[in-house]
Write a structure and sequence with these properties.
single chain, globular, 4 strands, alpha/beta
Length: 122
């Protein structure tokens, strides 16, 4: 029992590290958000989005991403965000499978919001 719990903990940690390794860096995100043709897509639920979000973002819940892919094709770059980076990693993979090449995992929305606010203060 202890061995299976230990193995589960190790696997969960590796998955978590893998997701965080995929999140774009602050400099990249700061640069992307200043360019025309970039959209920030928040993949949290409508309820989560309504509780707080980045003003310039659009809400496309992960569950409906497949239905909304066509509406994102006219953007040059797509930054996907969620609460922690897990759903945005899934959304990034889904968009890449659909042929998108310039998709960035912005991680948690509050993290990106802090980056954007710091840029405004400079």
């Amino acid at each position: 029992m202890k061995l299976s719990y230990f193995l589960f903990t190790i696997i969960l940690s590796l998955v978590s590290l893998s997701i965080h390794a995929q999140i774009a860096g602050a400099d990249t995100l700061r640069s992307l958000t200043t360019r025309k043709g970039t959209v920030i897509v928040d993949v949290r639920t409508v309820e989560e989005y309504n509780e707080g979000h980045i003003e310039s973002s659009i809400n496309i819940p992960l569950q409906t991403m497949g239905d909304s892919i066509e509406s994102l094709k006219h953007y040059e770059k797509v930054i996907v965000i969620c609460r922690s980076g897990k759903r945005s990693a899934k959304a990034k993979a889904e968009l890449e499978e659909a042929g998108f090449t310039n998709v960035y995992n912005g991680g948690g929305w509050e993290h990106l919001k802090a980056i954007l606010e710091a840029r405004e203060e400079e």
